[in-house]
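Help needed: design a sequence for this.
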């Protein structure tokens, strides 16, 4: 995937996320108003509220993962909030290590790596993201992993033939990392998965 295609895909991702976050925010505002009424204990309202919160969290996450990269710095609290919200109620937790601000393009790579690990950890688990001397290590720990060899080969540079839409992160991560001059390496075992860049 050439750099121009990666940039175009990122702009499309940014546009979609930007256009979706506004109506979802409006729905959430409407739910807050309904919550102030006498019928605030309605299970239907609770279900809709939970769904809107989940959708909002996914869009904020996708806006970073699939959106346009930049050198803008992202604070630790913002990254942790996005990761917490997107994994809330699920079987996956993400521990984000860096204490200092990180450029958005680096956080983008982290989020893409998280998506790759999440795909390969169907029973849930814990993902840890750390950075030492500018080198990132994203490690997934799970009772049992399911790392598809064909997908993990794409991370190492194999052609992404017949890639399903749910697996686009496996092709995008090495392409984006290559643009940042950061080769991707990965290891997979029964209980641990690691991606480095």
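Sure. Designed sequence:
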């Amino acid at each position: 995937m050439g750099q121009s295609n990666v940039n175009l895909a990122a702009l499309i991702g940014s546009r979609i996320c930007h256009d979706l976050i506004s109506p979802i925010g409006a729905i959430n505002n409407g739910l807050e108003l309904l919550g102030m009424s006498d019928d605030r204990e309605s299970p239907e309202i609770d279900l809709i509220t939970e769904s809107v919160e989940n959708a909002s969290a996914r869009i904020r996450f996708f806006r970073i993962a699939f959106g346009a990269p930049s050198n803008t710095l992202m604070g630790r609290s913002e990254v942790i909030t996005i990761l917490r919200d997107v994994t809330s109620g699920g079987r996956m937790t993400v521990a984000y290590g860096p204490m200092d601000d990180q450029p958005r393009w680096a956080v983008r790579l982290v989020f893409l790596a998280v998506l790759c690990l999440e795909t390969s950890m169907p029973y849930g688990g814990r993902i840890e993201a750390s950075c030492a001397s500018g080198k990132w290590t994203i490690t997934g720990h799970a009772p049992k992993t399911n790392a598809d060899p064909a997908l993990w080969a794409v991370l190492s540079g194999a052609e992404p033939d017949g890639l399903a839409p749910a697996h686009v992160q496996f092709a995008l991560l090495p392409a984006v990392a290559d643009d940042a001059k950061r080769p991707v390496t990965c290891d997979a075992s029964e209980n641990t998965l690691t991606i480095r860049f």
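The CA atoms of residues 54 and 88 lie 8 Å apart.
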